[in-house]
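Figure 6 in text form: structure in, sequence out.
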């Protein structure tokens, strides 16, 4: 199991938090997530995810399905940063 932190900006924080899309795309891969928001009220959000298969996660993130999920959630892909626990 690999733990990652992902941060990015979104168009609408409330929409991002309420969206079922994370569970729809990550759930079948066994990925669990905890979401975070900027307490200062910016559009910067993040999550900590436990990823059972990092290679499968990385491959998925290159797919159209991943791009569609990010678009659905209002993620600004150019702001996405992923850190991996060492």
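Output sequence:
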């Amino acid at each position: 199991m690999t733990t990652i932190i992902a941060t990015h900006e979104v168009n609408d924080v409330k929409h991002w938090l309420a969206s079922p899309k994370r569970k729809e795309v990550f759930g079948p891969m066994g990925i669990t997530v905890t979401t975070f928001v900027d307490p200062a009220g910016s559009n910067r959000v993040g999550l900590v995810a436990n990823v059972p298969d990092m290679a499968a996660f990385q491959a998925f993130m290159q797919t159209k399905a991943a791009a569609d999920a990010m678009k659905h959630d209002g993620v600004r892909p150019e702001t996405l940063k992923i850190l991996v626990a060492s």
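Caption detail: The helical segments are 13-18, 21-26, 54-60, 64-73.
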